[in-house]
Design a protein that fits this description.
By secondary structure, the chain is mostly beta strands. Helix content is 0%, strand content 49%. The strands form two sheets. Strands 2, 4, 5, 6, 9, 10 and 11 form a seven-stranded mixed beta sheet that branches. Strands 1-3-8-7 form a four-stranded antiparallel beta sheet, with no helix packed on it. The chain is globular and about 40 Å long.
């Protein structure tokens, strides 16, 4: 069993920055891959970014490339999503997720556990 708790969401103006955090507990954090997803009402949950167990490999959705950075601190059992140059279309509930067995998590079907989500609102 893994518990994930996101934090760091909020209201920001377009062009601003936010850093999301996701604290994990329940199993050895360094043994599983992590990812960030987001969802808006009426739409499917979409992939944003993913990071490997060691943190040495990352992958991003096209919408996040060049603006978002995923990182992890295995000593703190925490994964981060630094979001810069935010746009109104980034407004969504952001979720972190984990896969216990896969080396990479890039679709919502890959996830074994989800956090409760944190709201990000970008005003124009």
């Amino acid at each position: 069993q893994v518990q994930l708790v996101e934090s760091g969401g909020g209201l920001v103006q377009a062009g601003g920055s936010l850093r999301l955090s996701c604290a994990a507990s329940g199993r050895t954090f360094s043994s599983y891959a992590m990812g960030w997803f987001r969802q808006t009402p009426g739409k499917e949950r979409e992939f944003v970014a993913a990071i490997s167990r060691s943190g040495g490999s990352t992958i991003y959705a096209d919408s996040a490339k060049g603006r978002f950075t995923i990182s992890r601190d295995n000593a703190k059992s925490t994964v981060y999503l630094q979001m810069n140059s935010l746009k109104p279309e980034d407004t969504a509930v952001y979720y972190c997720a984990t896969s216990l067995n896969l080396v990479r998590i890039t679709t919502r079907h890959d996830a074994d556990y989800w956090g409760q989500g944190t709201q990000v609102t970008v005003s124009s």
